[in-house]
Design a protein that fits this description.
Length: about 325
């Protein structure tokens, strides 16, 4: 934990009367004492096990059979004197594979972070973050038995939502940083009252690399779909944001007859066509425009489509009447 929360680690070592050098030497002894005998490789991974941990941590407060990793496995938990609210839980599979993580002790109120400012070092475990911010995913390239880097979306105290990454060591939060720059713009209350502009002054950045964030800001109804998508795919790219998220909301609005939401979706299509990034316009050509020529879309499209989309619809259908909006469909 020293690289991520050095001041906190220093304070703990001082409270224990231990120098950093002594702590480093103890760590070396622990790793060295758990290497396989006669491995012939000084860098080979240590042989972690519940039995080995007992030599260092003492008897666990709980040790029992557990099938959470594999059938026939075991679970052990140790009290943590430095973190009285936490226990160290270890799951061991029959094969010897082991996973350990800090967790809240039974009966202790669980932290409930509400904004990114609440996520200070050592303030919560991975389980609390997982429970609070659903769009959480593991960055697998950094994940091992001790260190995990996860990505998630969270609001700040002003209500603005951005992507962040957090580092956990043994399941305890160490540090949080921006994974994507946060647009400065309207808060959720302003979203409800007036709506975020789709283009121009006050509008979020719109290009193929930021289309997911753009939808999150201008189309709040898309957020559950974005969360589901990003939970399944770490970096989905622009395509799924168009086909799975945007068209998903568009279809829901059409089915519900929600004129306000339908009109906003058509406004987003116009913004995609009128922007400087050709890839977004291509996705409208490939996926959106053909959908709008289906019978169930024709009435709303004739009422709400903007001039750029009308031109596309007229060309694709070879029907020049698409160039003329229906101002009143009653």
């Amino acid at each position: 934990m020293r690289p991520y929360a050095p001041e906190r680690v220093r304070a703990v070592l001082e409270a224990l009367g231990v120098t950093p050098e002594q702590a480093a030497a103890a760590e070396d002894r622990w790793f060295g004492g758990n290497r396989p005998e006669n491995s012939g490789n000084a860098r080979k991974e240590p042989t972690w096990s519940i039995a080995n941990l007992q030599r260092v941590l003492g008897p666990p407060v709980v040790e029992e059979p557990s099938d959470r990793l594999r059938a026939g496995g075991r679970l052990a938990r140790w009290a943590m004197p430095l973190w009285p609210d936490l226990q160290f839980e270890v799951l061991e599979a029959p094969s010897g594979w082991l996973w350990g993580s800090l967790m809240q002790a039974p009966g202790v109120p669980r932290p409930a972070p509400g904004t990114v400012e609440d996520l200070t070092p050592w303030s919560c475990t991975l389980r609390e973050l997982w429970g609070r911010f659903r769009a959480l995913r593991h960055s697998a390239e950094y994940t091992d038995a001790m260190l995990e880097v996860v990505a998630f979306r969270a609001p700040d105290r002003a209500g603005r939502v951005a992507r962040y990454q957090a580092t956990f060591v043994w399941g305890l939060l160490q540090v949080v940083w921006f994974a994507e720059p946060m647009d400065v713009g309207p808060t959720p209350q302003e979203l409800v009252d007036g709506g975020v502009p789709l283009v121009g002054a006050g509008a979020p950045r719109l290009d193929h690399s930021s289309f997911g964030s753009y939808l999150w800001r201008v189309l709040p109804e898309s957020r559950p779909l974005i969360q589901d998508l990003e939970f399944e795919e770490p970096d989905p790219g622009v395509g799924p944001y168009v086909t799975d998220v945007f068209l998903g909301v568009f279809e829901q609005a059409l089915a519900a007859g929600d004129d306000r939401l339908i009109a906003r979706c058509f406004g987003i299509v116009e913004a995609m066509l009128g922007g400087s990034h050709r890839l977004l316009a291509d996705y409208v050509d490939w996926y959106v425009t053909p959908e709008l020529l289906e019978a169930q879309w024709e009435g709303p499209a004739r009422r709400w489509a903007g001039p750029l989309l009308r031109r596309q619809l007229a060309e694709l259908s070879e029907d020049s009447t698409w160039q003329f909006p229906v101002l009143n469909d009653q």
